[in-house]
Predict the structure.
Amino acid sequence: MEHMEHIHPFPGGNEPAAIAVQGVSHSYGRHPALKDVNFSVPAGSIAMLLGLNGAGKTTLFSLISRLFGIQKGSISIFNHDIAREPREALRRIGIVFQSRTLDLDLSVKQNLAYHAALHGLSHAQTKQRIEAVLHTVEMETRLKDKVRSLSGGQMRRVEIARALLHEPRLLLLDEPTVGLDIQSRASIVAFIRKLVANQGISVLWATHLIDEVDVRDHGVMLRQGVVTAAGPLQAIMTHAGTLTVEEAFNKLCRKVELQEVLSHEP
Amino acid sequence: MSLDTPQVTTPEPLSRPYGIGPYLTCMKGILIREALRFLHQRERFISSLVRPLVWLFIFAAGFRQVLGVSIVPPYKTYVLYEIYITPGLAGMILLFSGMQSSLSMVYDREMGNMRTLLISPFPRWYLLVSKLLAGVAVSLAQVYVFLGIAWFWGVKPPPFGYIAVLPALLLAGLMLGSLGMLLSSIIKQLENFAGIMNFVIFPMYFASSALYPLWRIQEASPLLYKICQANPFTYAVELIRFAFYGQLHMTSLLVVAGCTIVFLTGAVIAYDPSRGLMSRKPAAGGNS
């Protein structure tokens, strides 16, 4: 499998990219997790970060959200370098992590109020935004309920509401539908797409579930820490010579070792 | 989920990590969260009180006749053993609380809750200091509840001592909380914390002046005496003991303040994304 160049590395026009990742490498000790990663996400678009488990998606999210320091390369959020201007970059980001990060012993309202405080929102803003985001995710009736009493899908909705609380311009979703039933998954996917359409928010969505992908999305194909393709999915499919996203995913994201084994099979 | 009514897009996020108001809001939010967590964990509150009370009611009563305490500053007369160990027991609450707070940081990091704190746009050092202060505030409340119960047991320092001891308790709490925070950055998994409890909490507590005056320890073992003198917890206890009587023990103040700066600086460096230890291991819960 040849290494693919970036089909659409940076957006055109004057509007800055929602995310611009340039030459980023990261390793855990001697084990490299990301190797010279380059891609960008145009403002107001959905970019699907596609890769198998262990491809480096969560590491990349940890770097974008500054949980980890950048060892090599740079990441900018709307032209604000995450290492040099972390405050400006982080205030523009809303994140839903792969693992649940709500406090189970606190109520929905208390969890959201805590997040609002972490962004310096005033009391009035907090009250107004909690009402607004819970209405948006149809969870306003569960305001005072303990998070522990919610279902998995409802917890995810609250986490999405929390990520939207401070009105970020970029939403990072790290496999937000993992472990949910089909109905909850479909609901969350539809909601995020409406959010992009109505509010012009930008989304970087890490997943390995192909049915969540729309061919009109942008894509970043990640395989063993290497970006094998990045750009509009239509262009990626054309370049890869495939007819579906799934085929492109199998071609560009599957592990090399497995592919080599398969290619030698009679 | 509904998004039928198009909402107005704001060009700038609401998040405002600037100015004193948002900074105070952030700290208040962390403080409230810590207090709520504490209130929801009633068993934690009860155990934090039972531990020193058992020492006061049983250990001190039993050893009163065995462990005589001569007149040592700040005491001007012979005092009952219960009175002697009360500052040490207040220190014990701060010590356990500081370590428990770091336990919760390890738990939060494993469960992912810690990430919600660390992705805040406020400076990392400010978030950690806020969390530290919130933990200390909760432990101070525990100390005062303990002192209230001890009053009925006959441990009655001068009334102004209850106010005078507050800064000493705060500083000692900050030192022990900072140490806990530093340890939490080193511990990879929750299971490893039991070892830290055994290797840090118990040696710190027993090799100090919390239970016995240092002159008694010196008589028994010069080596142990030197260990006690090198133990920052000894100075935290002495700072509290003197403050109960409206006195300032300068050496203790300098040692506790110095250790607080060293431990807190270490914790801030350890949690710094560009210099710290966190990025050297994969995130918990993530695939890679």
Observations:
- Chain B touches chain A through 56 residues (CB under 8 Å).
- Residues 35 and 267 of chain B are 22 Å apart (CA to CA).
- The first helix of chain B runs from residue 20 to 40.
- The radius of gyration of chain B is 21 Å.
